C-alpha cells in the first residue's frame, strides 16, 4: 500500500507540472488583458501597470519566475484584487466551500445510497418509480432555479432562514446553500446506486445467501453493499472534488465567500495568477481523491490488483 | 458503510440542526432583531410619527409615475425620531478590486472609499460642490488653484491631515511605480508635468502640486480650466497617509492597518462576503454623523440583492432588476427610488469600416430606433430616451433638442428608409452586419429589441454577437466590430466629461470618429471660464454629433434602487455619490 | 417418444418447414425493454416531444424572434395565440420553448453520445490494459479535469468563431471525464472475472475483448450515467452562451429560458413553468428510458 501511495506521489509531480504549463500558456493565448477597462487606458499607463506585475517580460520568462515562486509556496499577487495575494484569498475561501461541500456531500451520500437501495429492492414497483422521481428532481431542477425558489419560500415568505451571507459559518447560513448543492448529487448517487445494486442482487453469491436463509438486511449490509458501491465510489471521487470547489451559482445567490466565485471571476477578469493557483489546487485535489478511490477499489473488490 | 448507519446519521444531523436553530442568533437587520426595548420605542415613536410621517409618505405614491428624478421630500434629521441602532447594510454590486484610492477605477470601489476618506471637496445631495477637507479655495486665473485646508481634519490614527498628504497622494497617483489605472485623471485638467511623470520622463516630485504650508495646498495647471474644483471630489485625488503606506506597503489597506480621514474606518473585510465600516471618532465632522456601522455586501446578482432586501437583510440595494421593477413599484412605491444618473447608453458605429463610413447609413440606423419603446417598455425604470450624448441632468447644461428628436417615430422611420435607400441598400441588396454587446441580460434585451426594429423598418439583417467582458473590450478597442454597444458615465458633473469621448484622440473613441471642428470646439471649451459661454460651445458640439451621427444614443441612465423607508437622508445625487455620514436610520 | 412411422415422418416434415429462428441476446433485451411499462411510456412521450419540437413552431402564428410590443410579459392568452404567454420582450413563449427544445434536445443527446463513446472506450481501455498505459491515461484525465475550462472555451471562440458545432467540441471535451472513471472502475472489477480469462485463453485479441466482452457488460451503468449527463449538457449549453459560445440571441434554449424565467418568477411565472415543465418531463422520460435500458441489457436479470 505504501509503495502505491509513494508511486502516486511521484506521478503527481509531473502531472501537476504539465497541468501548470499547459494552463499557463493557454491563458496567455486567450484574448483580453487583465487590466483593460472600459475607459481605455492610455498606453503609458497600461505600460506602467504591466511592468508592476511583470507582464512586460517575455512569456517564457514569466513562466520561469512563476515556477520559481511556486516552489516557495507563493502563488503570486491577484491581478484583480490588488490588495491581496492569491494565497490570502484561496486560504480564506477554501474552508467556506469545503465546509458547505462536505455537509452537502455527506447528506447526498446518505440520502442517495438509501434511496438507491430502496428502489433496487423493489424494482419496477411504485416505490422504485417514486423514489427515482424524487431523486430526479434534483437533477432536472438546476441550481439557479432551485436556489431562488428556496430563498423565496424560506427566507422571504416564511422568514425561517437568512437569505444570504456566511457570517463565520453559523449553521443557519449553511442550511439553504447545502440543500441547494446537495440535490443534484443525491439524484446521481441514487440512480447509480440503484443500477449497481440491481446488478449485484442478481449475482450468484447473493442467490446463495438468500438460499441460506439470511435475513434481507444482513444480505444488503454485509454482502451486497460493498460490491454495489463500486461505480458509486468511482463517481464519488471527482464528485467530491467538484462539490468541495463550490458552485458559483450557489455562492453568488447566497453571498458565500467561496472558491467558485473566485474561479469564475478570475477567469472572466483574466486574473492569471488566481486561475493558475486554483487550477493547481483542483489538480492536487483531483489527484489525491482519485488515488483514494483507487485504494478503495482494492477494498471493495479484493480481486482488483494494480 | 451500512444503510442503518446512514439513517442514524441523518437523524442525528436533523436533531443537531434543530438544537442549533436559535432565532436569537440570527444576525439580521433591524427588521428581524426584535429587541424588546427597541420594539417598545418603535411602537411609541411610530404612533408619534404616524401623524407627521403620513403626508410625506403619501407624496411619493402620487408622484411616482411622473417624478423620475424626485424622491420623497427629505425629512431633515432633526424632525424625526432616530432608531436606537444606527446601522446600515447596503448592496454594492461587486467585490472591490482595492481600497487604495490611487489604484481605484470603478464605482464599486469609490462607493466604499467615499466613507473611508475625504477629498478636498465633496458633492452635495444635488451634485453640487461642497467643501471637504478644504474649507475654501481661490484662483485668480483658473490656472493656479489654492486650497485652504481646515485645521481640525484628522486621520483615524490621530495624525492631522496636512497639505503634504495631498501632495504625496497626487505624486503617488502619477508615479509609474504605483501602476495606477486612473493616473490619466490628473492629465485631463493638465496639471503641470503630469504627462511627463506618467511617461517616466521626470520624477514625481516635479508634478505641479505644492504644499505651501501645512494647511495650504496649491495646484498649477498648464492651461486654465474653470471647472477644476468639481474634479477634486473624485476618489483618485483623495489624500493618503504617507507613513502608513510606507510602513505596510501593499498591505496598508487591510483592516487594522488602513488609516483614513473619512467618517468611517475599516473594521472587517471578508472577500466576496462583506466589508464592515465603523464610525471614525477622529473625523472632524463626527458630531454630525449618525450611522455607527455600515456594511457593504458585494452581491453580484441583482435578483439576489433584491431577495435579500425583501428578506430584510439589506437596507439599500445597488440596482433593481428591470423585470421586477414594475411589480416592486406597485407593491412598494415609497421604497423604489429612481434618480437620474449622468450617463448615456449608445451604440457606436465603426466609422472606419464600410458601410458605416457613410453618414447616411449611420443616420438611417440611428433614426429607426424607437427610443421611447426602449426606455419605457424594454428598460422601464424611468430611463429617458437619449437623443444627445449629454444627459439632461448634467450641471448647468441646457440640452438642445437635435432636429431629429423633434420628429415623430413614423417620420423618423420614413427618413431612415429614404437615407438607407440613398446609400444603396434595399430588399435586393440588404444591409447585413453584426451587433456586438457584452454578456448581460439588459444589453441582450436592448439588442434584441433594436435588431427587431431595424429588421422591421429597414429590412436590415443583424447578427447578434455577445462576448464576455474582457473579450468584448479587446474586440471593441481593436476596432473589430461593425456596431457595438457602449455606455459612458460622467466622471464629474460637466458636459465635457461626456463630450470629450468623441474627440479624435480620446482613448475610448473606438469607432475612430474624427472631426477637426469638433476637436477644436472641445479644446476651446476648456479655456472658457464663463459657464454660459461654455455651454454654448457644448451645444454646438452636440449639433455636430447629430449631423455626423458617429453613435446612436439610446437612453439616459437612471439609478433605480430599493431603499427601506426608514433610511433617511437618501439624496438625488446624479453622480450617485452617496455618503453614509449624511444618512440616518429612522425609528421603525 | 413418437411410435408410428407416419407420425414420425409428419413431425420431421413439419419440423423442417419451421424456420428455426434463433433469438439473439439483443432481441432478448428488446423484448424485456418493451415489457417495461415506464420505459415504453417514456419512449412514446419523448417521441411526441420530439415531433412537437420539430413541427410545433409551424403551428403558431408568431415567429420566435418577433417582439410583440403590445403584450410584453403577458400571461398565456389563447385568444391572442400566445399559448404559453410572452417573455419580457413580447416574444411568444410557445414557439420559443419549442425552438429552444430543438437546441436542447440536440445538445443533450449528442453531447451524451459523445461522452458515452469516448468515455467508455477510454475507460475500458485504461482499465483493461492496465499497467503503464493505465497510469498515463489516468494522469492525463486528471490534467484535463483540473484544466481551466473557461479559458479553453474563450480561446475556441476567438480562433474558430461562433459555430454551433463548436459547442459539441467544447462539451465533448469535458463530459467524458467522469464516464471514463466509472467505466474504468467497472472494468477493473470485470477484468478478473472468469469469462474474461476464458476469452484470453481462447486467444481473443485485447481490442476484441474490450469491445465484445467488457463494453456490453458495463453498458448498464453507462446507460444510467448517460441519462444523468443529458440534463447537465442542457444546462452546460446555457453556461456556454454566457461565454459567447453556444446559441446566440435570438435563438434560445431551455437553459436560457429557465435562466430568464427564474429571474422573473414573481412577475411572470409562466416564463419559468412552461420551459421547466418541458425539461422536467423530458428528463424524467430519459431517466425511465435509461433505467429500462439498463434493466433490459442486464445479462443477469431474467
Short recap of the structure:
The complex is a heterotrimer of chains A (306), B (588) and C (302). Chain A is mostly helical. Chain A has twelve helices and no strands.
Q: Can you describe this structure?
A:
The complex is a heterotrimer of chains A (306), B (588) and C (302). Chain A is mostly helical and 306 residues long. Chain A contains 12 helices and no strands. Chain B contains 19 helices and 18 strands. Chain B is α+β, with helices and mostly antiparallel strands and 588 residues long. In chain B, helix 11 (359-367) runs antiparallel to helix 14 (409-423) and helix 18 runs antiparallel to helix 19 (531-548). With 302 residues, chain C is mainly α. Chain C is built from 11 helices and no strands. In chain C, helix 3 packs antiparallel against helix 11 (269-297) and helix 7 packs antiparallel against helix 9. The chains are: A mainly alpha (306), B alpha+beta (588), C mainly alpha (302). At the A-B interface, helix 2, helix 4, helix 6, helix 9 and helix 10 of A face helix 1, helix 9 and helix 16 of B.
Give me some keywords for this one.
heterotrimer; A: 306 residues; mainly alpha; C: 302 residues; 11 helices; flat
Topology:
The complex is a heterotrimer of chains A (306), B (588) and C (302).
Chain A: H1 2-29, H2 43-52, H3 59-71, H4 86-121, H5 126-140, H6 143-157, H7 172-201, H8 204-211, H9 216-244, H10 248-254, H11 259-268, H12 272-300
Chain B: H1 3-20, H2 36-63, E1 87-91, H3 107-116, E2 121-123, E3 129-131, E4 134-139, E5 144-149, H4 163-174, H5 184-187, H6 194-198, E6 209-213, E7 216-220, H7 228-231, H8 242-248, E8 264-270, E9 274-279, E10 293-297, H9 302-310, H10 322-331, E11 336-349, H11 359-367, H12 371-379, E12 384-385, H13 403-406, H14 409-423, E13 432-438, H15 441-458, E14 461-467, H16 469-477, E15 483-489, H17 496-499, H18 516-527, H19 531-548, E16 551-562, E17 567-568, E18 584-585
Parallel strand pairs in B: 1-10, 13-14, 13-15
Antiparallel strand pairs in B: 2-3, 4-5, 5-7, 6-7, 8-9, 9-10, 11-15, 11-16, 12-16, 17-18
Chain C: H1 5-17, H2 25-35, H3 37-59, H4 93-129, H5 131-146, H6 149-160, H7 164-191, H8 194-201, H9 206-242, H10 254-263, H11 269-297
Gross morphology of chain B? globular
Q: Which class of secondary structure composition applies to the elements of chain B? A: alpha+beta
As a whole number of angstroms, the C-alpha radius of gyration of chain B is: 26 Å
Order of helices and strands of chain A: HHHHHHHHHHHH
Give the strand order, joined by hyphens, for the main sheet of chain B.
Answer: 12-16-11-15-13-14
Overall mean pLDDT of chain B: 83
Percentage of residues assigned to helices of chain A = over 70%
By DSSP, the count of extended strands of chain B is 18
Mean pLDDT of chain A: 89
